[in-house]
Amino acid sequence: MEMKKEKKQQEKVKKTKNYDKGQIFVKVMAGILAALMVLAAASTLIYSLMI
Q: pLDDT tens per residue, the chain (51 residues)?
């Protein structure tokens, strides 16, 4: 009974440490796009205030 619990806990630890490359790529791209949106909004605001 104890062995089964230990194996399940070890499997959970392995799953949390193993990151999927696609998941990392999606998060990086989302961060880049969010930064671009913020820069675009800031530049638009600056441009509109200069006129």
A: 556 666 666 666 666 667 799 999 999 999 999 999 999 999 999 999 998
Task: Determine the Cα–Cα distance for residues 4 and 47; give it in Å rounded to an integer.
Answer: 64
Q: Is 46 exposed, middle or buried (0-12, 13-18, 19+ CB in 10 A)?
A: exposed
Q: What does DSSP assign to residue 38?
A: H
- C-alpha 15, offset from chain centre: 17
For residue 17, what are its two tokens?
A: 């440490």
